[in-house]
Here is the input.
Amino acid sequence: MDSADSGPDPKEELSRCGCWPVPRERPLDETLSVQVDSAATGHLSPAGHKLPGDSVPAACVYGAVSEPPSMGGARGACSAPASATSSKGSAKRSEPCEAAQPMSPKCKIMQEALKAGRVSQLQSSSTIADCTIGANYSSAVASICKDLDFVTGECGDLERDPTLAYGAAALTFKDVSFELPAGQGLILAPCSGHFEPGTLVALMGPSGSGKTTLLDILACKKTSPYTGDVHLNGRPRDELFRRITSYVPQEDIMFPTVTVKEQLMFHTVLKTEVPSKVTREDMAKTIQLQLQAVGLEEVQDSLIGSDVVRGISGGQRRRVSLACGLATGAQIFFCDEPTSGLSATDAEQCVRYMRLLCKKYGVSIVVAIHQPRQEVAVLFDHLLLLTSPGDVVYNGKMTEARQYWSDAGFPVPDLVSPTDYFLDLVTPGTLDSQVEHFREFYRANAKGKARVDELVERELWNLHERKTAFQLLEDRQERLSKFGDLPPVRYSSYGVRFRKQLQKVFCRQVRLLLRDQQGVFTEILVAIAQALVVGAAYIGIGKGEDAGYHQVGFYFMLVMTCALSGIKVMPKAIAERTVMKLEVSEVLYSDWAYIIAFTSLNLFLSLFCNCIFVTLVFALSGLEWTVYPIVLLWNSIIYISMDSLYLMVAAAARDSSSAQILLAPFLTMAMLFNGFTVSRKSVPEFMAWALELSPVAHAMEEMVLAIQKGLDSAELKLVETLFGFESHLGRSLGVLLGWFLVFRIAQIICLKTMHHIKR
Ligand SMILES: Nc1ncnc2c1ncn2[C@@H]1O[C@H](COP(=O)(O)OP(=O)(O)OP(=O)(O)O)[C@@H](O)[C@H]1O
Here is the structure.
């Protein structure tokens, strides 16, 4: 791509500003890195930690801040000792390194490169800002890729980019704790802390120590009552908190028949408004880059899969969840065990990518992680270590943890992984366990609780320096507006308007429906097969001279079959509900969007299959086609009425077996009091109300009476008298409509109020 004389390309501009990343190519200036590497150590490769499939991860960010950073990255994050100025002269390393921090080979390489006068080359290849000057597409890609190669977790590996960084959200929490009701136990003792923008935080602790509990509380995901306050930029969280933050849950719940790329695209377009000039191709490139960053490029067109649908592996699914979380343009991310199920190399690569996002773009990422390898642990800036049951034993910089342990009288032995050692000492029940000692030490030591409490007090209500959530969103809006029109920022927890939510959810439902070819085809084939079997039983019934009585049996069978055929939608509705609940809890879309999309599409398909069934059976029966519209109409009406009952039960029931139990009384009433086997003439008087309320009875009566009128059949007239059929068209339509409305409303209430994701 030649952009030298054509002026800035909006796509490049987007990429450069970090709003929409550009796709990967092999780094062009690999030679430089190889030179530097070999000069220093002779063994480091520019693509040192690659993901499977030789993918070169690349950064992707979603809203750059044009003003200089106000807080210079994570508190305590160290910088390289040498002063290095970018070609714009804005990125300066001036803070001294932590004294205790050893310098990694890569840091040394960078220092040597700086000293040797290769500064400008190195800088220009490692900051996206410089691509603004060159406006060169390939070098922009190369520089993004190269940035990840410099992520080491040690001082000065990457620094906040003043041109691109958009993270300006600080998280402060005070005395958050969680106790089970009725004194069943304390899960998390009061815990406080503060994370500056750009901090990569590790929440560590033994199993059951309350890491997820703390993460859920901070992310505003805890559904059980807890105490304590969480603040965003010194202010209590509000509705917009969920647009500023993003959550990657521990479990990977997704539709099995969507592809990896579609899943990521769905999350991306629902979390932020896309400027009008950003094309589908730009978006596709964005997705491509995000997939590369987490090593999923090779499986981008594979299905997510499940136990019954062949798809990607469990580890890859974990990475899809992570990519979806990180694709939201949030400023604070909460990730629960994002690396579980990943190979050691992939886990390291994921955390390196997170560090890149933190350092370069100023976002904060809080990660609950069980026991990372040392190579992964050093990538974190901050360690919050819990013991079991949830009590803090360390809350400070990762680089200071070793010294803290020494101060506590337990220096980390040589050749032992510090994080393993920390965990061994604070895990109850182990041989080395020193839980009580570390609890007390944290409470009493000046570098423990006292320091955290002081920081929290200082940061709380530090309103004049920090922006509100609304202002943060407005900033992003302003930056993105140069790429096209955008609707004004709304005070809503949803990233996009309802119309767009509905459109996206509807399109996905259509795709799922079409992709599930087996499901659609099976449904149509079953309708045809059922029609042939039933039709064979009643073949030519409309032609007999004295077939009136038998014809009523035929109509009865048709109505009953149509009333029951919607039952098959229940398992599907229950399965989809779980995914919908998770996505709704992530405020991707409103539950209304799903209810409307799912219900309308499902109704359309089912009615279509029902029409095939009725038409085929009717054709085989030999009845006069003049009455076909009557038969089709009443059978469709009964189908729609009963369908809302099935969907209500599917919305209320926990699973398929409890759905059957819940359905039984409704079904018995509707099916037993059907106007034919139990008719007006035979029903006991005290149960006459049941007949009046049965939709099947009303549909049956109205249909037979209308057919009789149409055919003017004396036989049928006789049968009607025998069974006591009466026409009350208004009342019948009222009952059928009543069933439809009552159960549809109940379905909506159940979907909105029940089976929430409980945390
Ligand atoms: N809402 C709740 N109701 C009852 N118990 C709860 C609730 N939330 C958490 N717990 C309990 O709190 C304890 C800590 O759980 P949590 O998931 O926070 O631990 P963890 O450190 O993340 O564990 P792991 O590393 O094994 O995932 C567990 O015993 C869990 O059952």
